[in-house]
Amino acid sequence: MIGQRLKQVRLARGLSLDELAAHLGGIVTKQALSKYEIGKSQPSSPVLARLAETLEVKMAYLLSEPTISVDFIAYRKKASMSVKEQEQLKSRIGQQMEDRIRLQEIFSPDAAFIFPLQEYTVSTLEDAETAALQLRGKLQLGSDPIGSMVTTLETSGVHVLEVDASDKFDGISAIIRKSGGMAVAGAVVTRQGLPGERQRLNRAHELGHLVLDVAEGVDEEKAAFRFAGAFLSPADAFIQDVGAKRTSVSANELLTLKQKYGMSIQALLYRMKSLSIISDTYYTDWCISINRRGWKRDEPGQLPPETPLWLRQHVLRAHAEGMVSTMEAETMLGEKINDESLSLVKRRAFMKLPLSERRRLMAEQAEQLAAHYEQDSGWREVEGGEDIVEY
User: Fold this and answer.
1) What DSSP state is assigned to residue 56?
2) How far apart are CA 130 and CA 122, in angstroms?
3) How far apart are CA 265 and CA 293, in angstroms?
C-alpha cells in the first residue's frame, strides 16, 4: 500500500494532485492518484516507476511505510499561511525526521532518549521562568550565557532543523515517536535566513513548547517566550549585569548585552520588562523608538546564524562507511557530495578480489585512460597501468 507514503512525498514536493498528474505526462489522472493515496487502488509497475522517477525517490521507498510518527506541538505562523503550505512543511519535516532517526539508530542503537518532554507544569508565567532554570540545571549549563543554542540542543538529543519557508512561518516543535508511541527524539524547526539573535530566540521558544506542560487558561505563546528569555538570560545573572531597577538604558548598552547574551535588542528590553527592571511605560517608549529607527526588522549589530551540524556529520559518516548510497546521502543533505571519501572502502573491496580480476580491472582502466589522453591532447600512450589505477 503506497497511499500514505505517496501523499507524504507529494506534499513534501509541494505538488497538488493536478500538478503531479501533469508532471507524470498524463499517464494517470488526478482521480487515479487520489485513489492511490486513499488506498482504493494500486498503481501498475510502470506507473509506480514513473511516480518514483518524478518524485525523485526509489520505488522501494514508495512501497515502504513511514517508520515514525511526528506529533507537532506548536505551529507559529501567520494567518495568511495556507493549509497547503502547512501540509507541505509538515510532510517535509516528517521525511527529514525519518532520515535522522534512521541515522540515529545506526550510530546510537542503544541510546535512550531521556529529554524532559512536556514535564514542567506551568500554571503562571513565573512557572515558565522556573522551568527554564530547572532545565538549565538538568543540562548542566550553569548561569553563563549559552554559547551555541544549536550545540546545546543537538548534544541533548533534540534535532535542530532549518527549512526554506516564507516569512509566514516562524517555527514549530515536534515529538518523534516509534511504533507503540515511545518518544525517540524531539525537534525544533525554524526558518532559514534569520539573523543569529532571532534564530536563537526562536529555537529557545520552540524548546519551551517541547518541555512545558501549560495549564488551561495560561497563554502558551507568552509562556514559551518567558521560558526562552529565562533560558537565554537567567534572572540572577541578568539582574547582576543590568541592575534590579533602571530608569534609562542606552542603545550602546543594549548592543553590548546583545553580544553577550545573543538576544535581540527587542528581546532584551522585553526581558527587562518581564523582570520589572524597567517600567511598562519605558518599554513602550523604547518600542516606539525602535520603530522610528527602523530596527524592528533590521537591528544593528546582527549576529551570525548558528548552523546545525548533526545531520551533515552523520550523513557523511554513514556515506564514508558505505552505510548509505551517494544518492541517499545527497537526498538527505540536499546537495552534491564528493565521492572521494569512499576511496578507502573501494580500495579494501578491490583488494578482496582475486588477483586475476584485479589485473583485468587495472588493464581495463589503463586502456580507458590512454584513450582519454589521446583524445584530449594527442599525448603518449599510457604505460604502467598498475601505477596509475585509482582504487
Assistant:
1) T
2) 9
3) 12
